[in-house]
Design brief:
Layout (H helix, E strand, L loop, with lengths): L6 H8 L4 E6 L5 H13 L11 E5 L2 H21 L4 H9 L5 E3 H12 L10 E2 L2 H22 L2 H10 L6 H14 L5 H11 L3 H18 L1 H14 L9 H15 L4 H10 L15 H25 L4 H35 L2 E2 L1 H12 E4 L2 E4 L1 H9 L2 E4 L7 H9 L10 E5 L13 H10 L7 E6 L1 E2 L4 H14 L2 H4 L10 E2 L17 H4 L19 H22 L1 E3 L6 E3 L15 H11 L3
Parallel strand pairs: 1-9, 1-10, 2-3, 2-8, 4-5, 8-9, 11-12
Antiparallel strand pairs: 6-7, 13-14
């Protein structure tokens, strides 16, 4: 019996001859659907496609290897059903060399095959991280030494403004950061020039002021909510009613800021906003705990407003504009330093016949595109690739950047009118901005691609087949409150929420209940989301980690005494095993060592 796909999943599998964006929620079966789409394409009775004519780009080498294995297994399964099928036997052979790869591996293959186009020595090697780091530092040292020896006024003014301490580490950091960031654009030098030019444009200054106003409106939402929560407590029977008047006045002050028509008015309203002292009236009928809660909420609100004032209202609008003009000279100097660094660093790498990961993308882009009328268009080499590839399939699309987008579009044949780019991802899972991914690429298509039948179509996979409804309810509850379009690029509304797709046995049907200890039976809802709060802990960082680990160890032991899980293979409940439990931390460094030590001490 075949897999029963949902209506939306079936769409992803079946639709052809169009650009498709699949917004796939966590646990929505996107990999299984992607594999099925590939299998359907290569086994199509009318016009089957060889698997090596599909360029399948994933984010990591491990993901590429897993994807290739799943496609190979699916082909072998089809062969078992159709022994002797010559086309399938051919696919089983081709899959081993099929372009199922990371973007960097694809770029590297382009460079190795067309190194002569960019006059690159074919014996190049990929630099090690340590070697590249030392080389960057050497280039920075040489660059700054040259600039100091010339003693130009613009440079010295720049260092005086941005340099701190006894060395140039901060300046070096700024240069490196801007160099790395500019590399995510197809034409970094033009982007850098544009950055410098912005500081001389009146429109840009106005845009900055408008953006500042928008940010202020977002930032004052939280303190307003805190004050309203405090006000509700004041209105309770034993609430601190004597604080209500002051909290109402606080709200009026925040509301005045919100209602301002421009930034100048907003600045004046914020300047006049003063927090008055809460009433000192005593009343034994008022709950001391609620009194302290309201005070705490108000203190949080005061800190939040203070942060807004410090960030946005340190000076009036006229001073902002003056600062922008003044900063323009420094930015111009910074841009020239970044360009010089890029030039010298490239020269050093060429001298060692070495490339880095950024070069892989940059060189592939140089091979696959050329400039015409100020625009990048596909080159003749890109045209050859476009003839080779029937479809471009991009996994984890939310982690793409502008350079990768240009590279993959150039080999798609889109310039000749072909619509054959298949993109799948979830912007809510975009965590690689520090690696220069640009989730706004995903969002631009998410907001413009049609949900109806069209050349550029979006398909949403909302259903989660991995988690229980109780888990999804908790996730949705939290993210509806913290994920906003202004802050994360997407509004966590009904279209972004997770919906239950899997079926689990009902709680009352658990046959494995005989495994549950009396301790677990006291919990009337076995699948209720828990929040464990560590109250008594040492303040030293190491002891905090160990205290948390000790608390988690106790919970693990409790689960092992009587917890149950739904087995992935059988669908039946069984006792919990250690392999069913995962501990996630924000960072591995420090935490892994302490947690491992404590778990070992606890016999786990």
């Amino acid at each position: 019996m075949g897999v029963k796909w949902t209506k939306q999943q079936q769409k992803v599998i079946d639709l052809r001859n169009r650009n498709i964006l699949v917004s796939a929620a966590a646990g929505s079966g996107k990999t299984a659907v992607l594999v099925e789409r590939i299998i359907q394409k290569i086994t199509d009775e009318q016009s089957p496609v060889d698997v090596d004519r599909l360029l399948i780009v994933t984010f990591t080498e491990a993901a590429a290897a897993e994807m290739k294995d799943r496609i190979r297994e699916a082909i072998e399964k089809k062969l078992e059903e159709n022994p002797g099928n010559v086309h399938l036997e051919r696919q089983a052979t081709l899959v081993h060399s099929a372009p199922i790869t990371t973007i960097h591996s694809f770029c590297l293959s382009v460079i190795r095959e067309h190194f002569h186009v960019i006059d690159l020595d074919p014996g190049f090697r990929i630099g090690e991280d340590g070697e590249l780091k030392l080389l960057k530092q050497d280039v920075l040292d040489e660059l700054l030494e040259e600039c100091y020896s010339k003693g130009e006024e613009e440079f010295l003014s720049f260092t005086e403004r941005f340099g701190t301490g006894k060395n140039d580490r901060k300046i070096e950091g700024i240069i490196l950061k801007l160099y790395e960031y500019s590399g995510s654009y197809p034409r970094p030098e033009q982007w850098l020039d544009r950055c410098a030019a912005v500081y001389t444009e009146e429109e840009a200054a106005e845009a900055m002021i408008r953006q500042a106003k928008e940010h202020v409106l977002i930032r004052i939402e939280e303190p307003e909510k805190l004050i309203r929560r405090g006000l509700k407590i004041c209105e309770e029977p034993d609430g601190p009613y004597m604080y209500a008047d002051m909290l109402e006045e606080d709200l009026r002050g925040i509301e005045k800021i919100r209602k301002c028509s421009d930034f100048a008015e907003m600045y004046d309203a914020a300047d006049r906003f003063v927090w008055k002292t809460l009433s000192r009236k005593k009343d034994d009928s008022v709950s001391a705990e609620k009194r302290e809660s309201v005070k705490a909420l108000r203190e949080q609100a005061k800190k939040a407003i203070a942060g807004v004032k410090e960030t946005y209202f340190y000076a009036p609008e006229s001073v902002w504009k003056e600062d922008m003009v003044s900063a323009g000279e420094s930015v111009k100097t910074l841009v020239s330093l970044v360009k010089l660094f890029a030039e010298k660093f490239a020269e050093k790498k060429r001298g060692r016949n070495m490339i880095d990961f950024n070069d892989m993308e940059r060189f592939a882009l140089d091979i696959l595109t050329e400039e015409k009328n100020g625009e990048l268009v596909p080159s003749a080499v890109a045209g050859e690739y476009a003839k080779q590839f029937e479809e471009i399939m991009i996994d984890e699309y939310q982690d793409s950047n502008f350079v990768q987008e240009t590279i993959l579009t150039s080999v798609s044949g889109q310039a000749e009118g072909k619509n054959n780019i298949f993109m799948v991802g979830d912007v809510k899972q975009s965590i690689y901005s520090f690696r220069l991914s640009r989730p706004e690429l995903f969002m631009q298509k998410y907001n413009t691609y049609s949900l109806e039948d069209s050349d550029r179509q979006r398909i949403d996979l909302h259903k989660n087949f991995r988690s229980r409804g109780e888990v999804l309810d908790s996730v949705n509850y939290i993210f509806r409150r913290i994920m906003k379009k202004e802050m994360g690029g997407i509004e966590y509304d009904d279209s972004a929420a997770l919906y239950l797709g899997a079926k689990f046995p009902k709680t009352e049907e658990i046959e494995a209940k005989r495994y549950i200890s009396s301790e677990c039976e006291r919990n009337t809802d076995l699948f209720k989301t828990e929040l464990l709060i560590l109250k008594d802990r040492d303040k030293e960082a190491e002891n905090v980690r160990r205290s948390e680990a000790r608390m988690i160890a106790r919970r693990i032991k409790s689960l092992m005494r009587g917890g149950v899980v739904s087995d992935k293979k059988t669908g039946e409940y069984r006792p919990v095993q250690y392999k069913d439990i995962v501990i996630l931390t924000r960072s591995v460094k420090g935490w892994a060592e302490d947690f491992s030590a404590v778990l070992a001490e606890e016999g786990i």
